[in-house]
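Intended use. Records like the one below are meant for learning the mapping from a protein sequence to its folded structure. Do not use them to infer anything beyond what is encoded.
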Amino acid sequence: MKITVLDDWAHTIPTLAAFKKVAGHDVTIWNDHTKDVDLLASRLKDTEALCLIRERTPIRAPLLDRLDRLRIISQVSVYPHVDVAACTRRGVILCSNLQPGQPSYATAELNWGLIVAAYRRIPQEMAAMKAGKWQTPPLGATLRGRTLGIYGYGRIGAVVAGYGRAFGMKVLAWGREGSLDRARADGCAVAPSKAALFEESDVLSLHLRLVDGTRGIVTETDLARMKPTALIVNTSRAGLIAPGALEAALRAGRPGMAAVDVFEEEPLPGGRHPLLDLDNVVATPHLGYVTHEGLDHQFASIFDQVLAYASGKPINVVNPEVLK
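Structure written out for the chain above:
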C-alpha cells in the first residue's frame, strides 16, 4: 500500500520499533507542517492509507474530495480534526484506537515537570546562570502543604493528583459530577464551586477535553479570582481558556504564573506568541504526549489498523457504514 505519515516534526517515525510493521509498503513521511489544501492534495494524491499524529492537521471535505485513491485514515485518540461525514461519503474508513482506560503518563509527567519548573523558576535561573548571575530574585517556592486544584478529574487529572499527594499537597477537584465521584473515591476533596476552585488553588491544572461545551470555559473572571502567587497549568488544549484572557490576567497579576504546553495554532506562527514575552510563563511546544515510547505505542496501533485494513479485516472503525 501507499502509506503517508504527516507532521513528523521531530523526524522520529522511522526510528520507532513499530515502523518495522510496514516494511515492504511504500511509506512517505512528511516532516514539515502545512494546512494548505492545494499542497496537501498534491502530496496525498496517490495515498491509500493516511496516518495522522493526533490532531496536527485538519482533514476536511475540501481536501478529502480531491483524494480519489484514499481508502483509510489511521490514528489514535479523539478525532475532532477529521470530517467523519465526508470520509463516509467518500468511502474512506476512519480507524482510531481510543485507548480506553489508558492515561497519558507522558502528559502527566510533563505537567508535573512544568509545575516544578514554574514554582522553582528553573528556566529563569538557568538563563541567569548563562548570563553569569547566581540565585536571582524572586526566590522560588515550596509545593508541600499547598493546594493543587484539578479541573477535570479524568484519566490524566487523576495521575497528576497522585503526583500532588506524593509531594505533600492537598488535592481539590472540580468538574463533571461523574469525575467528582472518582475524585471522592480516590480520597480527594471536592471544591464547593468552580469559583472556589480558582480562589483556593495554589496550583490549578486543567484536564478537560476541548468540545463545544468547554471552549472558553476558563474566563477572565475565573482567572481574576486566583491568588497573585498561584500558578495555572494547561497541557490539555489552549481553547479551554478564553482568547487573550490568560495574557491579560498574567499582566494584571492574578494568577502570578502560568505553565503552558498548548497554543491556539501549532506550530506557532513565526515562532512567536504573547505568552513567550512574559517572564512569569514557562512554555513548551506541545510535548505532552510526545515521547519516543509514547509515539512507538501510538504507531503500533496506527500501523496495525492499516495492516488490518489491508488484510480485509479493519479494526477500530469509527464509521462502519463504509464497510457496507
